[in-house]
Amino acid sequence: MAPRKSYGQFCGLARSLDRVGDRWTLLIVRELLLGDRSFRDLQGALSGISPSLLTKRLTELAHDGLLERNEAPRRSKSVEYSLTDVGRSLEPVILELIRWGSRWMLQGPGEDRLDARWAPLALRALLECQPSRRGRVHLDVDGVDVTVRSSSGRRRVTPGHQGRPDATVTAALPILLAIAADTMTLQDSGAAVSGDAAAASELLTPRGDVGS
Predict the structure, then answer these.
(1) Quick check: 48 and 23 in contact, CB under 8 A?
(2) 81-83 and 135-141 as β-strands: parallel, antiparallel, unpaired?
(3) Is there a contact between 127 and 154 (Cβ–Cβ < 8 Å)?
(4) What is the pLDDT of residues 16-52, one digit of tens each?
(5) 116-204 maps to CATH 3.40.50.300
(6) Which of 40, 134, 172, 177 has the greatest number of C-beta atoms within 10 Å?
(7) Which CATH fold topology does 12-89 show?
């Protein structure tokens, strides 16, 4: 592999950016945090990246030990990429960047690409570890299933529908993100709610009233 540009600074931030600071790199990591992906999957999720640049980024991430490919023959449709433990350790960084960047999402997606598969990561960034009373809500986000639950006073967001819910909420991702960012109430959102609407509202709102 050809030598890559480096900031040439003996600094943890610079060394990190040497490896994940290039365009598209962290978005590839985001996709792989959601599960193993084929080259075609990644191309479909990252509209705008050229095949040659995607190949380059995957090669760099593999060279740095952040991802690996399965044992399928090269150029086979069965080739999939997954994060290593080093790559997966970027998860809290990705979540914090999603949280930090959410302030520029308040006006909605506009013409930007929107993928409901991003819902678990986005909702984790906004809701996880926030205090809340015990409960469980199932979400249907444009056909993607997500569970938000709270036990021991802390919320957790997981893909799929887990356990028996207190309520089920069906809504588009921008609506749920607005609720989770506390810029819209569940009551005013137009989301379809079945079951305990008060429990759903609390679990989907970051300021959950643990005292009531």
Answers:
(1) no
(2) unpaired
(3) no
(4) 999 999 999 999 999 999 999 999 999 999 989 999 9
(5) no
(6) 177
(7) Arc Repressor Mutant, subunit A (1.10.10)
